[in-house]
């Protein structure tokens, strides 16, 4: 059964602004709070949010095997557990209900009143309860840049990097949806020339431009997911800003890797764009040399052409786009990451989130962090309207966008936005 709603010629009876990220070809999934303070699972077309719980109660999903309360929940985890076949049936049905030629819901003013919301009537929540969060480090350009700065340009990549999709286990308790402000973290740093560490607010808060994928239940303890099947266990993708404190990171990361420099906040975009919606935007991923070990070898196109942008907006200032990158630059694919993650028998569950790692492109304007864009503070980035930045300052807002375009069809992720607030000092310190 194909993903019928991907046809670029398909049109909906709902208004869709030009260049919207959310035409009928997208149909993402999210969770929102309605004007009546009810939490529900929904989708979005144009600038309308659609209450899937209400649609289901009105019988619009009849014939699809779904429990009565599948959409009347505050997370998508159970729906994601239902598996790929059900996701596609539901997405295709939504495409039919809102098709321009379908007069069913279109002519029912009473139903439309309970199902449709304008965006200012809702508040987006985290779409899933994220059990485990893993962050990879899969952009060769990013790993090379960081290795050049922190170690040696001649040996920028660690010896394992071209053989293993390197990653670490992050922390899910501090993953927040777009719009949630983040405080500058307090912590230990060892300033240059200092002999002993200091305690205070981080002076080098950075963004990391990443994308993340959300999984369904993939395996049982002890069983690996074969690479050929890995994509079947990926529900969809979101934008991820993996906020980082570079000065804390530099002092703490040897020998066990990132800790408090990374887990004070990670922001994600609220609508999960499904892998079905992303199919038309598949591309080859960069070639891999040397060839990986057999359990990581795959055939076909497993990259995705997703254009990415980052803006910095100072308080009362105008936005400056500081980076333009693309998800297609990733060296390791999502399937390789998932196959590697489970090759030792590690369990992956519905609602787990896997970050790509910072997505840097080949040119200096496509780097995915301030660390690289301003090259460790040595090349300040100029802002429109005056001022410059080497890292993120208090009350700056960081906004990320991602979208795919091909043959006149466009889908996207909307915006991921977060404001950096001043540090909260512990009492008496
Ligand atoms: Ca990261």
Description:
This protein is an alpha+beta fold and 429 residues long. It is 16% helix and 26% strand. The strands form seven sheets. Strands 6, 7, 8, 13, 14, 16, 17 and 22 form an eight-stranded mixed sheet that branches. Strands 4-3-2-1-5 form a five-stranded antiparallel sheet. The chain has a five-stranded mixed sheet with strand order 9-26-25-20-21, with no helix packed on it. Residues 135, 208, 210, 242, 355, 357-358 line the site of calcium ion.
Features:
429 residues; eight-stranded mixed sheet; globular; single chain
Tell me the layout of helices and strands.
Elements: E1 30-33, E2 39-45, E3 48-51, H1 52-57, H2 77-81, H3 84-97, H4 109-115, E4 116-118, E5 123-124, E6 133-136, H5 140-150, E7 167-169, E8 175-177, E9 182-183, E10 186-189, E11 198-201, E12 205-206, E13 209-215, E14 234-241, E15 244-245, H6 246-252, E16 266-268, E17 273-274, H7 275-278, E18 282-283, E19 303-304, E20 307-313, E21 320-326, H8 334-342, E22 353-355, H9 370-373, E23 381-382, E24 388-389, E25 397-406, E26 409-421
Bound molecules: calcium ion.
Calcium ion (CA) binds at residues 135, 208, 210, 242, 355, 357-358.
Give the distinct bound molecules.
calcium ion
β-strand amount? 25-35%
Number of DSSP helical runs: 9
How far is the first residue's CA from the last residue's CA? 61 Å
Average pLDDT, rounded to a whole number, is 96
- Poorly predicted runs are none
